[in-house]
Amino acid sequence: MARPRIAVRDLSKTFTQGPREIPAVSGVSFDVSDKEFVAIVGPSGCGKSTILNMIGSLVEPSGGEILIDGERVGMRPAPQIGYVFQKDTVFPWRTVERNIALGLEYRGVSGPEIRGRVAEAVKLAGLEGFEEAFPATLSGGMRQRVALMRSLIVNPEILLMDEPFGALDTHTKLNLHAELLALWGARHQTVVFVTHDLSEAITLADRIVVMTRRPGTVKLVYDVKLPRPRDVIRLRESEEYLREYGEIWHTLGEEFEVRA
């Protein structure tokens, strides 16, 4: 078998809050293969984002290890990683095209190349006509597209996404699901996508890591059997989708039951 692109091994994290120790995740292990789209779902507070932040070197593990391409992750982000946060994180003083160009500017890419790559990104994201617009004039979905393209334009091999569509309405979210699947289908980055929305996970992912309540552990790793390419609207009307939703919810739903 090929070596996994990302290997999470017996990962744990405990936060200290004054005299208290708060265990966030414990004994988490899973793999992500090259060009695979993996979603992490679970109850609020189960450590989904903490796991993502440890993969992205934003939080230091308390135990265990993470390997990317066989190299242990430290507190310096791997250069092949891009990150899309829960909030759109666009800079209000930069226009759409200057927000998208930011990563290329940091890398010292030449002006003509930046202009060409930004123009391509704007077209892919459906933002033509808004190149000179500032974020305050954009909808939430448009700002999130700007943030997504800012990460994709530097051609990351691995993309970490932390509930990037969680604050959006259903219609906008579905549109962005379709756009993300189209972009991923063209570039096939390795993706780890955190979400609290099981429907979103099934729509997007190849595999789903189901977490228990805090301290989060892996309860199930589920292979999504829905064929690609996926129509994000018609998919939810299919018997196959409903069957997969029911199979995962049978396990995930136990974590939402009230315990005496």
Q: How many runs of DSSP E, i.e. beta strands?
A: 10
Level-2 CATH architecture of the largest domain: 3-Layer(aba) Sandwich
Indicate the proportion of strand residues: 15-25%
Report the CATH superfamily of the largest domain. Answer: P-loop containing nucleotide triphosphate hydrolases
**What is the terminal-to-terminal distance?**
44 Å
Order of helices and strands: EEEHEEEHHHHEHEHEEH
The major sheet is characterized as: 6 strands, mixed
Shape: globular
Any idea of the CATH topology of the largest domain?
Rossmann fold
What count of helical segments does DSSP give?
Answer: 8
Q: pLDDT under 50 segments (min length 5)?
A: none
Round the Cα radius of gyration to an integer and report it.
19 Å
Mean pLDDT: 89
* Helix percent band: 25-40%
User: Can you identify the CATH class of the largest domain?
Assistant: Alpha Beta
Report strand order across the widest sheet.
6-7-8-3-9-10
Overall number of domains: 2
Given helix and strand content, the structural type is alpha/beta
Helix-strand blueprint:
Elements: E1 6-17, E2 20-32, E3 37-41, H1 48-55, E4 63-68, E5 71-72, E6 81-84, H2 96-100, H3 102-106, H4 111-124, H5 140-152, E7 158-162, H6 170-187, E8 190-194, H7 198-204, E9 207-211, E10 218-223, H8 239-252
Parallel strand pairs: 3-8, 3-9, 6-7, 7-8
Antiparallel strand pairs: 1-2, 1-4, 4-5, 9-10
